[in-house]
Amino acid sequence: MLRFCNDSVKIYEGKFDVNTAVFKNGIATDPNVGKNVYDGVKEILITHGHADHFGDALFLEGKVKILAPRHETPLVENPEINWRGMYSWAKLPEDIVTPYFLGRGVGVDEFSDSLEGADIKTVPTHGHTPSHKSYLIDGIFVAGDSVHCPSYWEKFGILYYVDPDRMMESLKVIKREDWDLLVPGHGDVFERREGLKVIDTNIKMLREKEREIYEIVRENGDDGVEEMEVIAELARKYGFKGVKAVLVVMPPVRGHISSMCERGLLELFERGGKIAVKAVKPYRQKS
Ligand SMILES: [Zn+2]
After folding, report:
1. How far is 49 from 208, CA to CA, in rounded Å?
2. The CATH number of 209-279 is which of 3.40.640.10, 3.40.50.700, 3.40.50.720, 1.10.10.10?
3. 112: CA distance to ligand 1 center in Å?
4. What is the pLDDT at residue 84?
5. Which whole number is the average pLDDT over 225-251?
6. pTM above 0.70, yes or no
7. How many angstroms does the Cα of residue 231 sit away from the middle of ligand 1?
8. What is the arrangement of strands in the sheet containing 266-271, beginning at the earlier edge strand?
9. Which of 14, 52, 114, 143 has the most CB atoms in a 10 Å sphere around its CB?
10. Residue 167 C-alpha to ligand 1 middle, in angstroms?
């Protein structure tokens, strides 16, 4: 249950392997342990609007101040918005939604976008979600899902993010911040030396995923390939099955395709009523 402990913080391994940090100074981040570890806590900071990052906030509502990024707040208060968005806002049966996104909403008391104090700073780390924020507290970088554990990349092959370019920018920002301990949203925590390597692994993986997607498209020549077939090919490669998994992989794949369309490498077009994509320029990594 307790994953890490030092003079200023206790980090708990919460539900879905999420990292819930409880600081001595009365701040807790991404609460989802499922039991009360929050004695002395006065403020809860939420990194983003995925329900696996704020599950415990509901039983703390009214007792502590709950802070979340302004544009993530609608998702924290009403998580259904998130999975409806994932399905083009259409109605969808709840049993096809990833359990990571299912939960009960909680009222947000204040926005956390620009905290700045002696031992706290908000760092914008957009990309996993549109307005994801990280928190640098007492030399500890609470990265939420702006950093994924290398073991997660290995296990799943591709992970959730909506904007790979902003994800990449965020990773570069995190490297420049002054922290001693890196706390990703899920899995292990890392001392600085190791943490910098973990960030480099994330950067490498984002580049690899982009290249993989480009190659799947290019192999289909001028005819291109249906967008859903790109997703299916990755599903076959990494062995994920089921509607939930496919829905989770759609945003990162589409994010990469959009980025490469913006850079003129790929082009989206309609074919027989389906969205297809083709390569129009040789691959070049984003500078
Ligand atoms: Zn998340």
Report:
1. 27
2. 1.10.10.10
3. 17
4. 87
5. 92
6. yes
7. 20
8. 225-226, 274-279, 266-271
9. 143
10. 12
pLDDT one-digit tens code per residue, 168-227: 999 999 999 999 999 999 999 999 999 999 999 999 999 999 999 999 999 999 999 999
Ion ligand 1 nearby residues (CB, 5 A): 50, 145
The type of residue at 261 is: C
- Segment 87-105, tens digit of pLDDT: 888 888 888 888 888 889 9
> For 268-285, what is the mean pLDDT?
96
Task: For residues 201 and 205, give the distance between their C-alpha atoms in angstroms, rounded to a whole number.
Answer: 6
Residues of the chain with CATH 1.10.10.10: 209-279
Distance 158 CA to ligand 1 centre (A): 14
CA of 282 to the centre of ligand 1 (A): 33
The pLDDT, as a whole number, for residue 88 is: 86
Dist. CA 281 → ligand 1 center (Å): 33
| pLDDT greater than 90 at residue 261 | yes
Interval between CA 48 and ligand 1 midpoint (Å): 7
Cα 176 to ligand 1 centre (Å): 23
Domain with CATH 3.60.15.10 in the chain: 2-206
